[in-house]
Each structure stands twice: as structure tokens, then as C-alpha cells.
């Protein structure tokens, strides 16, 4: 706060403080909105990419679905309901992984923003001592 308001005369300090708080809150709101947008878009992207690999040619997926269906059948579901449940479990797992990757992307972008801000700090003028 000293860097932003320290060079102002006392007569302008109240107005500048209010403007500073407004910009801080506005910046936070914009940052939250951007992070939400990035999370939504990147979740969809990663889910789509994961879904591209989940097909009947994928032996690991087929094994997962079969093992899940057997487990659900042992719990009393019919074979059709067990297969449907296994596919729902697979979809939920893919969505969880897509969200994890989206959060990783969002934190990476936040890191870049902080690095840029940190590089700009030495360029700021120090306020004169009162």
C-alpha cells in the first residue's frame, strides 16, 4: 500500500485509497471470473481428449468396465444395470481427471500472472520519505 499511495499528498489520500480499494476488488472479481472460465473451458477440453481414448479398442478401459460390472453384479444389479453403472463410473472418473487437469492449467496461468507481477515490482518508484 505504501508503494501505491506513499507519493500522494495528504489531501488526495482519501480519494486515492477509495480508488485503490475499488481497483483491488475489481481486479479480484475479474481474476475469479477468468479462473472460472479457464476451469470450465479446460475441463471440457480435457474431458473431450480423455473421451477420445475411451473406446472399445482400449483394452484397459474394457477391463475396467468388465471388473466394475462384475463388482456391481455381485452387489445385486442385473448385468445390464451393472454395465450401465460401470460406464457411469468410468465417465465420473474421466470427469474427475479432466477437472484435475483443468485446475493444473488454471494454477499454471495464475503462476505466470504472479511471475509477471513480480518482475514489475523492481520497476516501481519508491515513495519519498515524509
List keywords for this structure.
4 helices, mainly alpha, about 80% helix, rod-shaped, about 130 residues
Walk me through the structure.
This is Multidrug resistance protein B. InterPro entries: MFS_trans_sf. The chain crosses the membrane at residues 20-39, 106-124. This protein is mainly α. The chain has one domain (13-123). The protein is built from four helices and no strands. The chain has helices at 2-5, 10-53, 59-74, 79-120. The chain is rod-shaped. The two termini are 15 Å apart.
Task: Spell out the blueprint of helices and strands.
Elements: H1 2-5, H2 10-53, H3 59-74, H4 79-120
> What is the number of independent domains?
1
Oligomeric form: single chain
Class from secondary-structure proportions: mainly alpha
Largest beta sheet, briefly? none
Number of strands: 0
Estimated helix fraction: over 70%
Unreliable spans: none
Rg result: 26 Å
Organism: Cedecea neteri
Transmembrane segments: 20-39, 106-124
Protein name: Multidrug resistance protein B
Keywords: Membrane, Transmembrane, Transmembrane helix
In short:
This protein is mostly helical and 130 residues long. Helices cover 82% and strands 0% of the residues. The protein is built from 4 helices and no strands.
Amino acid at each position: 500500500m505504501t508503494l501505491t499511495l506513499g507519493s500522494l499528498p495528504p489531501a488526495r489520500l482519501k480519494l486515492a485509497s477509495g480508488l485503490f480499494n475499488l481497483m483491488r476488488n475489481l481486479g479480484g472479481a475479474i481474476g475469479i471470473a477468468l479462473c472460472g472460465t479457464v476451469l470450465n473451458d479446460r475441463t471440457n477440453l480435457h474431458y473431450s481428449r480423455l473421451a477420445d481414448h475411451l473406446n472399445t479398442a482400449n483394452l484397459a478401459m474394457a477391463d475396467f468396465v468388465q471388473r466394475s460390472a462384475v463388482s456391481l453384479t455381485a452387489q445385486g444389479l442385473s448385468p445390464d444395470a451393472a454395465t450401465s453403472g460401470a460406464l457411469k463410473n468410468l465417465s465420473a472418473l474421466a470427469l474427475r481427471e479432466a477437472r484435475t487437469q483443468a485446475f493444473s492449467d488454471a494454477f499454471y496461468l495464475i503462476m505466470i500472472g504472479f511471475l509477471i507481477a513480480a518482475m514489475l515490482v523492481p520497476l516501481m518508484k519508491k515513495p519519498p520519505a515524509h
